[in-house]
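Propose amino acids for all 518 sites.
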């Protein structure tokens, strides 16, 4: 332990600045997290991280890892000073916009009081109460807003607001429209009546204002129908912040569980990449509910999650991370007794096919009759394309013929994979038949497919067959080559079929091919 260091030494200033910057950086990162818990406790987490770094440094000094004379209590005091400065700075910055919002709230109250003589007293009080709601309630923040109580929580004033607010396009609706809807709702209205009113309103801001106003009515509690209507209004009206806060309310248990509401929340979260973890939180909540709640995941739930995961599955090996999620969801679906449909099984086969897991894809393909599902053109397409990409040309051609016998028409990508794979193995007759069948089905190949087949014919010393095939493709009635593509292919055939010895570098020529001058 070092006792003789000075209070005003240079290293003390370094300790203060280091802890100050670490606390600010950690608080900023926590404030930008997608987890609400981290955002709410950003400052304490930043201070804790800074103190942990300072304590680790003192432990290292005591162990003589950096060649120092030992730990110092004055260094620890400098660390505490830096953390205290960071906390004071963050609190000061957060207090400035809060004061501005209070001034705006007073101006709004004064405006409401000046025009209250022009409308009925009851409507004026309702409109003034709606306008006096803090912005945290207007944005439906889950940690400031609960539907179980009809008044603000104890210890919070009407003008209090959180230290940090995301930008939102939510606006306060006009008082006359809001008052008209309030008078239209009869006394003692239910959650279904409120849901019908929200669904019939075209303005999403007015619909959300009705939802908030009803939550403040004494004795009223929102039902899943009203939450579903408000979520649809926020999603269709492009109010993502309000929709996310509604989903957080549902996830926290603000209303009774409902399968349609949970699936609607999943659909909104799956459409946005940043909310994808919340979708799995909702899925785990549905699985944890008892069977008597009738909210266990169904076919729609697994379809939403699998479609989102499959969209991220591209090429191995990076896609193997998401393939684990596909396997896990598939096992949970079978264990829960959910009977899938053809679309859901096609999603699983598509994920296996993109990762070239042919055996797993065929296993799901053979299980389809057990669920009374018939394979369609997409099922065969995923399997055939994966087989040709994997190198199983014989099995891929067999499934392709079975697909055509059933009357299904493959996509252009499946056809092009088959033509290229057969041409690379010098099975030119089969590749030519697949190419002509592709043109008969009005599927247009790309330049790479044509060049692969024609150039492989030239490499196999079948140049005449390549030129004949090119002329046949030009004169074909369906899917004929255009003049530009024909000219490029013809030029490529002339180049690859002519002798290339004179174009070789001098060091690659034989002794008899040198110039006469040498």
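Proposal:
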């Amino acid at each position: 332990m070092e006792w003789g260091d000075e209070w005003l030494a240079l290293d003390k200033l370094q300790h203060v600045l280091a802890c100050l910057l670490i606390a600010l950086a950690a608080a900023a990162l926590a404030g930008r997290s997608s987890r609400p818990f981290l955002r709410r406790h950003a400052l304490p987490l930043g201070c804790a991280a800074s103190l942990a770094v300072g304590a680790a440094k003192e432990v290292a000094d005591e162990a003589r890892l950096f060649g120092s004379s030992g730990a110092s209590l004055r260094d620890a005091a400098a660390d505490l000073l830096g953390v205290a400065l960071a906390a004071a700075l963050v609190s000061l910055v957060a207090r400035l916009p809060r004061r501005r919002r209070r001034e705006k709230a007073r101006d709004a109250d004064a405006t409401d009081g000046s025009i209250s003589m022009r409308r009925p007293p009851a409507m004026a009080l309702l409109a003034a109460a709606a306008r006096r709601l803090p912005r945290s309630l207007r944005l439906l923040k889950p940690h400031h807003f609960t539907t179980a109580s009809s008044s603000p929580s104890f210890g919070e004033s009407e003008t209090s607001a959180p230290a940090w607010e995301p930008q939102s396009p939510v606006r306060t609706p006009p008082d006359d429209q809001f008052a008209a809807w309030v008078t239209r709702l009869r006394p003692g209205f239910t959650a279904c009546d409120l849901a019908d009113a929200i669904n019939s309103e075209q303005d999403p801001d007015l619909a959300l204002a009705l939802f908030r106003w009803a939550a403040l009515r004494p004795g009223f509690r929102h039902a899943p129908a009203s939450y579903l209507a408000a979520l649809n209004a926020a999603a269709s009206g492009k109010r993502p912040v309000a929709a996310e806060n509604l989903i957080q309310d549902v996830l926290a248990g603000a209303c009774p569980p409902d399968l349609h509401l949970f699936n609607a929340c999943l659909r909104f979260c799956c459409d946005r990449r940043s909310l994808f973890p919340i979708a799995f939180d909702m899925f785990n909540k549905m699985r944890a509910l008892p069977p008597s709640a009738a909210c266990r995941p169904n076919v729609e739930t697994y379809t939403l999650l699998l479609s989102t995961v499959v969209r991220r599955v591209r090429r191995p090996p990076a896609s193997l991370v998401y393939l684990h999620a596909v396997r896990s969801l598939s096992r949970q679906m079978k264990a829960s007794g959910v009977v899938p449909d053809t679309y859901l099984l096609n999603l699983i086969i598509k994920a296996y096919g993109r990762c070239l897991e042919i055996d797993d894809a065929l296993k799901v393909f053979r299980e389809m009759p057990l669920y009374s599902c018939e394979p369609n053109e997409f099922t065969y397409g995923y399997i055939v394309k994966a087989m040709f990409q994997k190198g199983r040309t014989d099995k891929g051609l067999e499934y392709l013929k079975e697909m055509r016998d059933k009357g299904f028409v493959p996509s252009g990508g499946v056809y092009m994979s088959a033509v290229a794979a057969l041409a690379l193995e010098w099975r030119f007759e089969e590749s030519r038949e697949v190419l002509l069948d592709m043109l008969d089905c009005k599927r247009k190949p790309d330049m790479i497919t044509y060049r692969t087949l024609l150039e492989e014919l030239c490499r196999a010393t079948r140049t005449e067959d390549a030129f004949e095939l090119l002329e046949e493709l030009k004169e074909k009635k369906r899917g004929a080559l255009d003049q530009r593509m024909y000219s490029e292919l013809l030029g490529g055939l002339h180049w690859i079929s002519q002798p290339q010895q004179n174009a070789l570098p001098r060091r690659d020529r034989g002794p008899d091919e040198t110039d006469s001058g040498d």
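Residues 411-497 form a domain with the Serine Threonine Protein Phosphatase 5, Tetratricopeptide repeat fold (CATH 1.25.40). The chain has four domains: 10-113, 136-147+173-281, 297-405, 411-497.
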